[in-house]
Design a protein that fits this description.
Layout (H helix, E strand, L loop, with lengths): L2 E13 L5 H6 L1 E12 L1 H6 L8 H13 L8 H12 L5 E9 L13 E7 L9 E9 L5 H16 L3 E2 L3 E3 L13 E10 L3 H15 L13 E7 L4 E3 L2 E3 L8 H10 L10 H9 L4
Antiparallel strand pairs: 1-2, 2-3, 3-4, 5-8, 5-9, 6-8, 7-8, 10-11
Helix pairs in contact: 3-4, 5-6, 7-8
Length: 285
């Protein structure tokens, strides 16, 4: 991937943001410095605007937000967040840095400028409305793997709200070539509806794993608890720390079968779970 970093500085427009009455009445000038990152591979190869994100379009969108397209805000923090969210609505953009300047802020001392700077990715943004999230749980170490999975489901539900869950299923451990045998896994799938950011969901999963005593010494090792984020509605990611949908979900029957029942229309690597199940069931040639 050829990542491009595009920066626009000094986008200036008149806005009505601020907590003071006269700020809402009279308004003032705001300036924005914006950087965004995107995959420029296709654009460089084709030398066509349609394969990138127009910085002219982005600048116009930022100016309109300052001017009140999404309303007026008391805080420049909210203004910056709204700009970041709008920039990241372009699917080609992976992350953005937004700096909002408020040079006419009502301070009682001499000053040059007031700024706030935020950096956001699509994975760090909370959803505006609850969206479906699929999580796969498994355990094959410890005194009670089934009990550990049930406990983890309770911990997830305490944060994410009501879950729709599959029955527990015992499956053979999937091993790397030459790897020593492991105990069978107890697996389950859970579907949540939450506004939590993807990164926050991943942090929650890791916290629960760590509390259960998960040790990460090597890949494919036996685990006291494993929680994978399989899919999040409307969200794809190539970020190394969180690939979405999960890159091996289409290879795992213990994921696909409950997913086909609980979230049948979810897109997993370009197809629905039932399609992948048929592929797994087909005899190899």
């Amino acid at each position: 991937m050829a990542e491009a970093e595009i920066t626009i500085t000094g986008i200036c427009a008149h806005g009505y943001h601020g907590v003071r009455d006269f700020e809402a009445r009279d308004g003032q000038s705001f300036l924005v410095d914006l950087t965004y990152w995107l995959d420029s591979t296709a654009a460089v190869s084709a030398d066509e605007l349609e394969y990138t994100v127009s910085y002219s379009e982005i600048a116009t969108q930022v100016a309109r937000i300052i001017q009140g397209e999404f309303g007026r805000f008391d805080l420049i923090e909210t203004l910056a967040e709204t700009i970041a969210r709008q920039v990241l609505s372009h699917q080609a953009i992976t992350r953005t840095r937004v700096r909002v300047h408020k040079p006419e802020a009502p301070l009682r001392v001499d000053f040059d400028d007031v700024t706030i700077t935020i950096e956001r990715t699509r994975l760090s943004l909370p959803a505006r409305a609850p969206r479906k999230v699929a999580l796969s749980l498994g355990a094959n170490l410890g005194p009670d793997p089934a009990g550990q999975v049930r406990w983890a489901l309770q911990e997830l539900q305490a944060v994410l709200g009501p879950l729709v869950t599959s029955e527990l299923e015992v499956t053979t451990a999937q091993l790397a070539p030459g790897q020593a045998r492991q105990p069978d896994y107890v697996n389950a799938l859970a579907i949540a509806n939450t506004t939590l950011a993807a990164d926050d969901i991943l942090r929650l999963a890791h916290r629960i794993e760590n509390t259960a005593g998960r040790i990460r010494d090597q890949r494919w090792q036996a685990r006291v608890l494993d929680i994978d984020v399989i899919a999040i509605a409307g969200l794809t990611s190539t970020a190394p720390h969180l690939l979405l949908p999960h890159p091996r979900a289409h290879e795992r029957r213990f994921v696909l079968q409950p997913l086909a029942q609980l979230w049948p229309d979810v897109d997993i690597a370009g197809h629905r779970p039932a399609w992948w199940l048929q592929r797994l069931a087909a005899p190899s040639s």
